[in-house]
Design goal:
By secondary structure, this protein is mainly alpha-helical. The chain contains seven helices and no strands. The termini are far apart.
């Protein structure tokens, strides 16, 4: 199933809203310019594949997750912006670094307090 430009832009808006992000914040996280992202919305143009890859990387999701809302991780109902930021940063780590972070947190919390 293909997505219309409105579907693509609505998906980006949904992801922005879920994270309480602005287009400027997405620009910072994705490495794209603010004007590039603004032009997508203002001119209603499809992003190129490299642009969409950068957007997905900024959100900490795969392109598959972008196009399939069913596979997107559910949002916790009671989570602060700071906690959400930690989750999305964690998701951007390699598997090896995720294991290191988990071990570090275990040390901070104490393995018996999980």
């Amino acid at each position: 199933m293909s997505m219309s430009i409105d579907d693509v832009l609505n998906r980006i808006r949904t992801l922005l809203n879920q994270r309480h992000w602005t287009v400027y914040k997405l620009a910072q996280e994705s490495g794209l310019s603010n004007s590039t992202l603004s032009n997508l919305f203002n001119r209603k143009t499809y992003p190129t594949i490299p642009t969409l890859q950068a957007i997905c990387k900024g959100f900490g999701i795969t392109m598959s997750e972008f196009f399939d809302e069913e596979t997107a991780p559910p949002l916790a109902l009671d989570i602060t912006d700071e906690e959400m930021d930690i989750v999305y940063r964690y998701r951007r780590l390699s598997l090896a670094r995720q294991k290191i972070m988990s071990a570090y947190l275990d040390g901070l919390i104490g393995s018996n307090q999980k």
